[in-house]
Specification:
This protein is α+β, with helices and mostly antiparallel strands and 144 residues long. 18% of the residues lie in helices and 38% in strands. It has a single domain (8-99, 112-143), classed as Hotdog Thioesterase (Thiol Ester Dehydrase, Chain A). It has helices at residues 8-14, 61-79; strands spanning 26-31, 35-41, 89-98, 107-117, 121-130, 133-143. It is built from two helices and six strands; from the N terminus they run αββαββββ.
Length: 144
């Protein structure tokens, strides 16, 4: 595996999220204004597995989409360092599809690409992959 572009310590300097809501462990690749590839190691120790679902743990789909959005936020911050002190918010989610469950032990690869950028918002397409297969996909819009 190649060296990460950003390790956890670097991500904590960029994103405002903290445990239990930080859903990015590493950034593997970034092309400013275009694309980001990030990683989330899904472990049984995640707090949400206590209730989703007892005896059959499955990562909630909304958290997979949130992980995509966090990766997208890192891309936005990497593209425009002047945004460092601005908080990015969800505006919308479209074309959301869940293809397969994400379970403890999976490594979630988040691939997010820029579809459109304006002075106050980004529209991105995200895919969450496990073992090279799409587990979830969505288009997300965010603004600051």
């Amino acid at each position: 595996m190649t060296q990460p572009v950003m390790k956890l310590e670097d991500i904590l300097q960029v994103l405002p999220h903290r445990y239990p809501f930080l859903l990015i462990d590493r950034v593997l690749e970034t092309v400013a204004d275009q694309r980001i590839l990030a990683l989330k190691n899904v472990t049984f120790n995640e707090a949400f597995f206590q209730g989703h679902f007892p005896g059959r743990p499955v990562m909630p789909g909304v958290l997979i989409i949130e992980a995509m959005a966090q990766a997208g936020a890192i891309l936005a911050y990497a593209t425009d360092p002047g945004m460092k002190d601005k908080l990015i918010y969800f505006m919308g989610m479209d074309k959301v599809k869940f293809r397969r469950p994400v379970v403890p032990g999976d490594q979630l690869i988040l691939e997010v690409t820029n579809l459109h950028r304006s002075s106050r918002a980004w529209r991105m397409q995200g895919k969450a992959l496990v073992d090279g297969k799409v587990a979830a996909q969505a288009e997300v819009t965010a603004a600051w």
